[in-house]
Amino acid sequence: MRRTLSNSPLKGESMKLMRLMGLMGLMSLLAACSKEEVSEQVGEAITFSGSMEESGEVTRAETALETLTHSFKVWAFKNKSVNEANYSNPECVFPGYNVNWTENSAHTSTTNSDGWEYVGVGGTEDQTIKYWDLAAKAYKFFGYAPATADVKVEFYKPNGANEGNGTYETYEANGIQAANWANEDWVNYSKCRITIEADASTEDTQAETPYLSRLWFAPGSDLTTRFSQPVKLEFFKPFAQVRFMFKLSKPDEPVQIELPHFFPSNPDHQIVLCGTVKITYSLTGTETKEVWESTENPTYSMAAFTQEWYKLTDAEVTAAQTAGNTELIANQEKWYTVLPFRDQGAYTLTVRVNGEERTCYVPGEYMNWLPGYSYTYLFKVNEDGGVEIDAINVAFTDWQEHEEKEKKVYNW
Question: DSSP secondary structure string, 132-195?
């Protein structure tokens, strides 16, 4: 005979027990989730990629970071409050996570959209999945590559009263230890500064200098369209690249150009090749771009640029080879890699045109070199042999090729 418990007095107690067990299981599950996952409205998982533009088309002028290095370290903060574009109340989302690239691994996990993965790859103590918070007022991402690079990371934090005039702030070297990141009160921090030693004196030291990223910023109004897209960080070497060129007013008439020197007009100044570069990323306030400063190491510098940029035609290369002029071939397409620097003052160009000394000056406002940019100074040689500045072109620097300086390096 089949028994039924539909009218059993144990039914109520059993149901209570089942509800209690279910509630306890749910509470355990919630406790295992991060605060970010359960306390806020969340969207899709945050991923890192960027091989596709918002239009859905690949920008071939951009360089994939994995062709240069297979890791980077990333920080991300979300602002919980905003008042007239003044973002405040920051909360740490990525506390210095390692992000690694593995070939043929795209789409093998929720957090790997294009070969870049941060969950369970090491680095900080607990690299777990992160989700977009649709209630956030803004997101900010930044970092450096490779993840093993020798850099100094500091966070700017209020440190007490300043005689009634508000708070004064100091940098804490290397920020917060990894074990304390999750529990740290990030609302007290206003910015992060990454410091590196940048050396452009040789190709080897240039290669050893790490990449830094631009500040990736998205206001809350953009999150509904960008939260489902991978974060694309733009990386750059903390150098500038410079070249100078000559243009003839009458290209068909032969002109002999010799001994060009392009140098700081102030005799106390040198062209800096090595020093300290500091990039600062705001966690609060109205700043939505990174800020930089550099300090020179005078031991590594040069007095002047002495090789102009030119490109030989095939016929000219053949003629140079026939004449044994290997130097002419070797020196073409010359770019100089230097430390980024502001307030250098004016520059002077001296050059011999058809045997006569000529001079041209470039005002100081055109001699500010930003990190990750290239600068072309084009000098025009007139009919009478005079020289004048004709154009100054600025573009993003590509660190693989030395042709068109408009390429960028991304984490894809």
Answer: EETT-SEEEEEEEESTT---EEEEEEEEEE-TTS-EEEEEEET-S-GGGGGGS-GGG--EEEEE
Q: Is the pTM for the entire model greater than 0.90? A: no
Query: Could you give the CA distance from residue 72 to residue 154 in angstroms, rounded to a whole number?
Result: 17
Residues contacting residue 210 through CB under 8 Å, at least 6 positions apart: 144, 145, 146, 149, 150, 151, 196
Contacts of 233 (CB under 8 A, 6+ apart): 48, 50, 72, 74, 141, 142, 143, 213, 214, 216, 410, 411
Domain covering 240-272+297-396, topology: Immunoglobulin-like (2.60.40)
3-state secondary structure at position 347: strand
CB 278 within 8 A of CB 197: no
- Rounded to an integer, the average pLDDT of 45-70 is 63
Average pLDDT over the chain, rounded to an integer: 78
Cα atoms found within 13 Å of the Cα of residue 343, Cβ hemisphere only: 4
Contact 162, 246 (CB under 8 A): no
Return contacts of 396-402, CB within 8 angstroms, 24+ apart.
Answer: 396/236, 396/372, 397/236, 397/237, 397/239, 397/240, 397/241, 397/372, 397/373, 398/63, 399/63, 399/68, 399/236, 399/237, 400/63, 400/67, 400/68, 402/241, 402/333, 402/335
Instruction: Please name which of 405, 397, 144, 97 lies closest in space to residue 278, comparing C-alpha atoms.
Output: 144
Handedness of CA 203, 204, 205, 207 (dihedral sign): positive
- 207: which 2 tokens? 């290669």
Domain layout of the chain by residue ranges: 37-236, 240-272+297-396
Task: Give the containing element (helix H, strand E) for 319.
Answer: helix 314-323
pLDDT score at 125:
56
Confidence of residue 12 (pLDDT cuts 50, 70, 90): very low
Q: What is the 3-state secondary structure (H, E, C) of 24-42?
A: HHHHHHHHHCCHHHHHCCE
Residue 199: helix, strand or coil by DSSP?
strand
* Residues whose CB falls within 8 Å of the CB of residue 115, separated by 6 or more in sequence, listed in order: 49, 66, 101, 102, 103, 104, 105, 106
pLDDT at 3 over 60: no
φ, ψ for residue 205 (rounded to 5)?
-70, -30
CB 229 within 8 A of CB 361: no
Question: Contact, 372 vs 397, CB < 8 A?
Answer: yes
Task: Give the separation between CA 120 and CA 132, rounded to whole angstroms.
Answer: 19
